[in-house]
Amino acid sequence: MDRYFPTQSRKRSRFRYQVVLGVGGNVGDVARRLNRLWIYLKRQSLLYPVRSGVLLKNPPFGYVEQDDFVNTTIEIATSLEPRALLRQLWRIEKHFGRVRSFPNAPRTLDLDMIFFEDRVVNYPELIVPHPYWSGRPSVRIPLRSMRRTFRRQYENFDI
What we know:
By secondary structure, the protein is α+β, with helices and mostly antiparallel strands.
């Protein structure tokens, strides 16, 4: 059922920026939802999925009285600037049933911007690179599975 994890798109992108997303969830059939997400992203006009990492099952943190998560990373191409992309990611989460009830609550889909090209962004609602990416196996392991293609772009980060 992990048809698109890992995978790489064959189509070349017309978009300006490469962005790495941390992706996950722990409500319902997350692996199936992530495969549906890949297809959904391919149909979007504002972004396009380029490649994905392996799926990883891992325990929750913060609020621990919930099911394990299934996580991965997806590189997307987009011409949206960081804040506009963040709003688009929130819309996608909502489309897939995400409800923000309390911090670290169980969720159907979580999309976090890990890297946006080599840019550093520091807004109240968005910090890039993601401040906790390097301490999270849920990001590092799937990202490492894509490392060969990221080596040049993300050589400053110890993946």
